[in-house]
Amino acid sequence: MRRAGAVSPGNVPVCYYGPGGRVPASLERRVRAAEVLLRCAACGLAVLAAALLGADRQTRVFFSIQKVARYTDMQSLVLLVIANGMAACYSLIQCARCLVSIIRGGVLLSRPLAWAIFSCDQVMAYIVISAVAAAMEAALIGKYGQPEFQWMKTCHLYKRFCAQAGGAVACAIAASANMVGVALLSTFNLFRLYGSGKGGAGDK
What we know:
This protein is mainly α. It has one domain. It is about 60% helix and about 5% strand. The protein contains 4 helices and 2 strands. Strands 1-2 form a two-stranded antiparallel ribbon. A hairpin with a 2-residue loop joins strand 1 and strand 2 (about 65-70). The longest helix is centred in the middle third of the chain and has 34 residues, at about 110-145.
């Protein structure tokens, strides 16, 4: 027998929170607050990383020839700016969704929506991590060179440019760490929909 007000599985919005049908309200608030905090931090750090790289330039003169170092001179840094811009926009949208959910209160996720959020969070985390890895490799080559391939180090020539780019990469690393945290939370939010209360919390 099903109690009045019980929900059914399928496309109807459901939320299985374990054997008792729910998690404590205090835990639910902490999960939501953590998600908002992580998404906001990821957005801010991604914006800062993209802004630092976008504004990074240094001019040097070599034998009467003026050379300007920009982030566009390295494809890995261009990729990092694009990836952080995408992550910032995505995090801002998701942060707004989380805030609306908290303000309204008691918003239950449907499985398709939970899967969509989970998938997007995973993809964005992978994109940012891949861009950070490529930028770190290029930064190390710029700092130390690669004698085996006769690639010269350049950071001793453009110290200010490299210092600012290093700060941007550090911000991007922090943003990627927050994105990983968000991906873990979205995993939790998805798979708790398939808890032991499966089939409806009100079934007897």
